Input
Amino acid sequence: MKRHDIFTIHAAPFYAYRKQVILRQAQKLKQVFPDFEILYSIKTNPFFPILQTISEFGLGADAASAKEVSESRRAGIPSERIYFSAPGKTRDELEDVIGRCHIIADSFHELDLCNRLAQEKHAVLPIGIRINPAFSMEGTEGGPSQFGIDEEQLLSSHAFDDFPALRPTGIHVHIQSQILDADQLTAYYAHVLTLALRLEHLWDTKFSYINFGSGLGIVYDPDNQKPLDLDALQRKISTVFDAFRPRLQAKFLLESGRFLVGESGVYVTEIMDIKISRGKTYYIVKNGTNGFFRPVMKELMTKDQHTPAPAEPFYTCPNISQVTLLADREGTETVDIVGGLCSRYDLLASNVTLPRAEVGDRLLFTNAGSYGYTLSPLLFGSQTPPDQLWLEHEIDI
Ligand SMILES: Cc1ncc(COP(=O)(O)O)c(C=O)c1O
Output
């Protein structure tokens, strides 16, 4: 099928995800991190065919809720490849997932909950710990965080005295996503490895896993961003990992959401009206903010500053999606693309130049595979939410 057929047959709006792009990205990760276990961060897009693809490819799961643990199991991911890590887990959630995944505690309160659950079951529970490290992604000092336990609070051989039914088996660090600099990532991995060795020594243990979290970025704006140099990354990290490997028995884990699925997805919607107001042309589309919120965030987050904050997973930048008109039209015009909600920030793109569209034409937005559907306020305005389509075969957009 040609591009225009597939994208114009199905009732808009909809998301469409391309399986072959996900497989391509997964293959790249396997190449750069050959002896790592790669975990798909389900929160980025829990669409079930994606989970099945991840499972078929042999990847594991980074689950952020008990439901995501269940979905991973349903997709065929074995328990030993599922890692449950999120702040604010409830006792019920923890009880529900015990034995179905690795649990990574995010606080002393969670360690206490897990310890009690283990004692009730007269068992010793292997537990991972999410750490808020004393370093930042830029190599400066780490700050306060709602994620994990501060490294300093764990730097004692007595850190587990209050939790006799727990056995620390792994650590998890994640401080920033959307990094496109191989040197920065390499330095970060070295810091995490150093921390792991230090804790193993203090707690007189050998970890069975070290989870480096995510960090791998993708290009959202090709005019202003350069892709992460994967060859350079592979070269640089192999030196670091080779140096640490002999001193560690742990399996290395890497999480990834956007790198695996971000580029696989597109959002397609329809122009419902075209309006000219005091010289400015507006294309009014079906389900703007309440279909695809991600480009709208740029308008919200860059209002008073030129560089958007790297707030995850709300990372955004100018031109976060490239827009294409799915119709052959003569001439061009520069327009704002807006939705139909009661907000002037229901704005998917401003001042984009496109062929001169007509009402009923469709627009396609790229980079909609991660934090697209999940992050959008789909109920706002009580319109029918977008569909999600799965494209098995290679297709050009
Ligand atoms: C702990 C953790 N791991 C992994 C991810 C996935 O990040 P990305 O989609 O950038 O790979 C996130 C995103 O916020 C996260 O918080």
